[in-house]
Design goal:
Order of helices and strands of chain B: EEEEEEEEEEE
Strand content of chain B: over 45%
Oligomer: heterodimer
Radius of gyration of chain A: 13 Å
Distance between the termini of chain A: 36 Å
Largest sheet of chain A: 7 strands, mixed
Largest interface: A-B, 30 and 26 residues
Structural class of chain A: mainly beta
Distance between the termini of chain B: 41 Å
């Protein structure tokens, strides 16, 4: 089945540790995105990548880093510099073409204590 | 800057119609989308409308677009308890493939039996 996978579903970390969230897609999509969701805040764009080996900062990139070495994979690292890392993280991808429908993964809930 | 606004909550009785409203600011938006998010899950695309259309119907869903007022609505006919979820309005504007979407904060729909 084609789709986007995010792992793990739940992640717990101690403050001061970096943590990497996985996102893989087998839809052959060019573009991939990371969003952060907080209660009542909607989705805020962290980083996006339109092609392999290239990515751009979104609205809230501080304290996060990404890589795009393969078309299928777009991992997100939450660094210790991120002041409020506890949130629900959503990865998405979209095809090239006439419109920009995004397909979402199931999300990773990160809790930092 | 670009912004998408939605009311935060809507409560309806099972069998009634639900209408979720959205306003956006980017007049160059090419496509407008409605996504549904069930608790603890990713977003699922419900429907979209191209900016040169006024209305789109898809089974129980009707999307109305008033481009002059930059107002988008989603009507769900015969609302069921399974429709309880958060509904996000989103816009895209770029001609370049993979342009990130701008999401509203989401409307929580509560359906009582």
């Amino acid at each position: 089945d084609g789709g986007i996978t995010q792992s793990p579903k739940y992640l717990f970390r101690k403050e001061g540790q970096n943590v990497t969230l996985s996102c893989e897609q087998n839809l052959n999509h060019d573009a991939m995105y990371w969003y952060r969701q907080d209660p009542g805040q909607g989705l805020r764009l962290i980083y996006y990548s339109q092609i392999v080996n290239d990515f751009q900062k979104g609205d809230i990139a501080e304290g996060y880093s990404v890589s795009r070495e393969k078309k299928e994979s777009f991992p997100l690292t939450v660094t210790s510099a991120q002041k409020n890392p506890t949130a629900f993280y959503l990865c998405a991808s979209s095809p090239s073409g006439a419109y920009y429908e995004q397909y979402f993964g199931p999300g990773t809930r990160l809790t930092v204590t | 800057g670009e912004d998408v606004e939605q009311s935060l909550f809507l409560s309806v009785r099972e069998g009634d119609s639900s209408v979720i409203n959205c306003t956006y600011t980017d007049s160059s938006s090419t496509y407008l989308y409605w996504y549904k998010q069930e608790p603890g899950a990713g977003l699922q695309l419900l429907t979209y409308i191209f900016s040169n259309m006024d209305m789109k119907q898809d089974q129980r869903l009707t999307v109305l677009l008033n481009k002059k007022d930059k107002h988008l609505s989603l009507r769900i006919a015969d609302t069921q308890t399974g429709d309880s979820a958060i509904y996000f309005c989103a816009e895209s504007g770029g001609v370049q493939a993979g342009t990130a979407l701008i999401f509203g904060k989401g409307t929580t729909l509560s359906v009582s039996s």
